Amino acid sequence: MSPWIAQWVALVFCVGGVAVRIRDLRSGRGRTIFVALVLLAAAVALSIPGIYLSVDSLLGGINVAHLVARYFLYVVVFLLGRQMAAAFGSSRAQFLVAGPPGLLVAGLCAATTFSLFAANSMPTSSPGLVAYTDQPLVRTYLQSARLYPMYIAATVVGPAAAACLARGHRTIHRFASGLVAAGMALVVVHGSLRLLGAIEAGPVAAALAFGGISLVVSGITFVWISRSRYESRGRLSALRELFGANRTFQNSRQRQSDTARER
Amino acid sequence: MTVTAKEFQLWRGRVAAQHTVAELCRTVGLKRSTLAQQLVRGRIPLSTVIGVARAYGLNPLASLAEFEGYHDVESGTRPPTDAELVSQVCHVDILRLLVVRSQRLQRVGADLGVNLSPFPHGTSVRSWIEAIDPGDLRQQLSARTGIARQNLSAQLTAGKLAPAILVEAARIADVSLTNGLVVGGYISADEAAWPEDARERALARMSDADLAWLGRDRLDNLGKQIRKSELDERTDKLMWENLG
């Protein structure tokens, strides 16, 4: 089995999420999530060595592709975080992601990542920068790049878990929120373990990080499924639905007793 | 709720002595695995007992009366009260009747002028419980059956109460013991010997003021239900519009 299995799985999820949403672009809905998923697919693809090396050679072979992937990821977590905070109806999370503190954190992280990247000299293409991990400054660059995704994931995981536990919500939405919450939790766990030095790059770390991505993407794909099912069914007035529900109820009961009597 | 598998087996031996379990299932139209599972669990739902009784041409109530907890069901059968009958008319029919009475020269007690929709309807159980409530029905029900109040409320909102609780509610409220089973959809109104057109006659007897107040109460409940479904829809829309 390829050691890059987690990356490939996450890539398949992302591409699948992008594919199902292409049709909706014409009507103009779901554009933000579409852009986020395209960028996420690109960032995940850049974590796979073969793709990384060929893209990086186009960009000059000095690991600029790694920096580009970080920035893609920042845009993705910002967009997803903002949409999720709104979807889960959490004004606190919205404030922390897209309000002044969120923008401040985003700006600081983007600037730090760029200056740390520029401060390093990495003249040969190296997927995941593994060739340079003995340099302290490169390690700092890699660690700093995890901070912003962790910040957003930690902000969203609470509202997502709350939406998963909310009894009144649709089952499919509770399931989707649960997937998102689990995925975000994995992102936080992976980032913290890496920061503490408890795990190094390897199959476990990849499973945590890319497993988290797969869970989040499948969660929002379930929301897409729920939406397209709802729209294909059409909408009725609440009055009609309540009265209609009554009629189905009695009809099914009626049918049950009728068939029982026939027999 | 349920009857014990032991009692069910004894009863089955009497009413369907000539049939094996497989033949019984075929006659009733029940999946064999379903019944097997119910037997293994040791609890047979009432719907199975009633299904078997119907399939073998027995009176479901008489059959039910042979089981523990339901012995007095058949002897406790009386005609339904007006309040119970009116509770089984859905809100649309009540409103229609208000319109008919407002527009036509129709005396109270005369022919209704409205064809009632069949029942039980979606809020049958809840309306029935409200109609028979002497004031502390929910407290007494939860005390006697050991079901927590909030679970009881949740089941009432969903319109689903277990048969044993429906029978117990009727016992507490001192109404016919079978009526709960009718409004819960477990037995038909005919099987519980509800008179033909009883609902129509009960409605026709209502005074205009009572009818107006009934309409108000029903609209009040309806408004609450719709408010809730609108709130649910708002949370759904937030999900769809932001992540869909």
In short:
Chain A has 263 residues and is mainly alpha-helical.
Topology:
The complex is a heterodimer of chains A (263) and B (244).
Chain A (H helix, E strand, L loop, with lengths): L4 H17 L9 H15 L3 H10 L5 H24 L3 H8 L1 H20 L16 H30 L5 H26 L6 H31 L4 H25 L1
Helix pairs in contact in A: 1-2, 1-9, 2-4, 4-5, 4-6, 4-7, 5-6, 6-7, 7-8, 8-9
Chain B lengths: L1 E3 H11 L5 H8 L3 H10 L1 E3 H10 L4 H5 L17 H6 L3 H13 L20 H9 L4 H9 L3 H10 L4 H11 L5 H5 L14 H8 L2 H36 L1
Antiparallel strand pairs in B: 1-2
Key descriptive features of the protein:
heterodimer; A: 263 residues; mainly alpha; Rhopdopsin 7-helix transmembrane proteins; 10 helices; 0% strand; elongated; disordered C terminus; B: 434 Repressor (Amino-terminal Domain); 2 domains; two-stranded antiparallel sheet; 14 helices
Account of the protein in words:
The complex is a heterodimer of chains A (263) and B (244). Chain A is an all-alpha fold. Chain A has a single domain, classed as Rhopdopsin 7-helix transmembrane proteins (Up-down Bundle). Chain A is built from 10 helices and no strands. In chain A, helix 6 runs antiparallel to helix 7 (136-165). Chain B has 244 residues and is mainly alpha-helical. Chain B folds into 2 domains: 2-64, lambda repressor-like DNA-binding domains (434 Repressor (Amino-terminal Domain), Orthogonal Bundle), CATH 1.10.260.40; 82-222, no CATH class. Chain B has helices spanning 5-15, 21-28, 32-41, 46-55, 60-64, 82-87, 91-103, 124-132, 137-145, 149-158, 163-173, 179-183, 198-205, 208-243, and strands at residues 2-4, 43-45. In chain B, helix 7 (91-103) crosses helix 14 (208-243). The chains are: A mainly alpha (263), B mainly alpha (244).
Structural class of chain B: mainly alpha
The separation of the N and C termini of chain A measures 58 Å
Order of helices and strands of chain A: HHHHHHHHHH
| Rounded Rg of chain A | 23 Å
Tally the helices of chain B: 14
Q: In terms of per-residue confidence, which ranges of chain A show pLDDT below 50 for 5 or more consecutive residues?
A: 246-263
From the alpha carbons, calculate the radius of gyration of chain B and give it in angstroms: 21 Å
Tell me the series of helices and strands of chain B, N- to C-terminal: EHHHEHHHHHHHHHHH
| Largest beta-sheet details of chain A | none
DSSP strand content of chain A = under 5%
Number of domains of chain B: 2
Helix percent band of chain B: 55-70%
Name the average pLDDT of chain A: 87
Biggest chain contact: A-B, 39 and 35 residues
